[in-house]
Design goal:
The chain is mainly alpha-helical and 122 residues long. Helix content is 63%, strand content 0%. Its main location: cytoplasm.
Length: 122
């Protein structure tokens, strides 16, 4: 017999701002910052390695914060929280700005090739 699915936490926009703020602050805790730096250095700006090395560390840091708000302590909880944030981004400029800040902590800046640039043949 299957167990009933866990109730997904529902947060107001105000609560979401508080949780987002705590998540962002968690990345500046020296121990977490060191873990992220180490993972980034190991990834060497390779996007595939970023997904393998940096994303799991970032997920763990987020899980530590959001579990006290009713999200499960697995990757699924982080995904549900991300969906909740995305829902509020269009309604609340502060949440949108905090979400962008969080994304900047997780992903390296993307360098784009110049528009119309050509690669010289050697």
């Amino acid at each position: 017999m299957a167990s009933a699915p866990a109730q997904q936490p529902t947060l107001t926009a105000e609560q979401t701002r508080v949780v987002l703020s705590e998540v962002i602050q968690a990345f500046s805790v020296p121990e977490n910052a060191a873990r992220m730096d180490e993972a980034r250095e190991s990834a060497c700006n390779d996007m595939g390695k970023m997904l393998q090395l940096v994303l799991p560390v970032a997920t763990q840091i987020q899980q530590e914060v959001i579990k006290s708000y009713g999200f499960n302590n697995e990757g699924e909880g982080v995904l549900k929280f991300a969906r909740l944030v995305k829902m509020y981004e269009t309604q609340d400029p502060e949440i949108a700005a905090m979400s962008a800040k969080l994304k900047s902590l997780l992903l390296p800046p993307l360098s784009t090739p110049p528009i119309g640039g050509t690669i010289a043949a050697s």
